[in-house]
């Protein structure tokens, strides 16, 4: 069949129009991101220095640093990942490697997807009811960490499952044909190959945990603390909640405005470092898998 030049020109024109629309929307996204970052950096760069990162807040949080908020955020990230990583990864392995395609598997996946769609403030209310009140943890690091871990658990499960799915079945069949057990196949063949993508999901979960405000509002975050936490049952300050407080209800909102933008810069910098670390780890473990 011979296609006329008119039809070809019409198809090429449609393709150019489509590409230009995609290009315009991509540029809008990039420019919006640049504008937001530029605005925060312009307003917050003046307070960023070593003392800002290593000192306690002073004078009603209108002066001083954000050191306790940084430490509190790191505590919550570490605590939530200690809870979410082993349970999430093992659950993902179980769903993909050990359950057959049945109503039970579909039910687990449905519940996992629904859990991922629940608003973070609902997790906060649940964490307050279960961990703070029922289990008696009070407003503490462990209550906040368990709440945040529960919130990102579906993300870890789904990314683990998708990472395992991407491993070709021929590797499983080859391992089983050589006499390896199911557990040995998963542990020594499938899991190492899926590990780069699993790491990516975990690191993205870290980024989400570090920026959440609603769950920690009910379970752990303190308005101001003059000291660092000494146990997992202590309250902590956290960067997102600290940013919210000094921007909306501080003792002198206008005076603490530069500190708010500086806190936002530190929070964005933390998330940026986490994302760069995710890419670096994914490339590193990806190369190791190819070499093996």
Secondary-structure content class: mainly alpha
Overall residue-averaged pLDDT value: 86
Number of strands: 2
The helix/strand order is HHEEHHHHHHHHH
**Neighbour order of strands in the largest sheet:** 1-2
Low-confidence stretches at least 5 residues in length (pLDDT < 50)? none
- Intertermini distance: 49 Å
What best-fitting shape do the alpha-carbon axes yield?
Answer: globular
Q: How large is the radius of gyration?
A: 24 Å
Number of helices: 11
Question: Major sheet: size, sense and barrel closure?
Answer: 2 strands, antiparallel
Proportion of residues in β-strands: under 5%
Helix content: over 70%
Structure notes:
The chain is an all-alpha fold and 292 residues long. The chain is 76% helix and 1% strand.
Attribute tags:
globular, 11 helices, mainly alpha, 292 residues
Short account of what is shown:
The chain has 292 residues and is mainly alpha-helical.
Give the helices and strands, then pairings.
Layout: H1 5-44, H2 50-54, E1 57-58, E2 63-64, H3 67-98, H4 103-116, H5 120-134, H6 141-165, H7 169-177, H8 182-211, H9 214-219, H10 239-248, H11 257-291
Antiparallel strand pairs: 1-2
Helix pairs in contact: 1-11, 3-6, 3-8, 4-6, 5-6, 6-8, 7-8, 8-11, 10-11
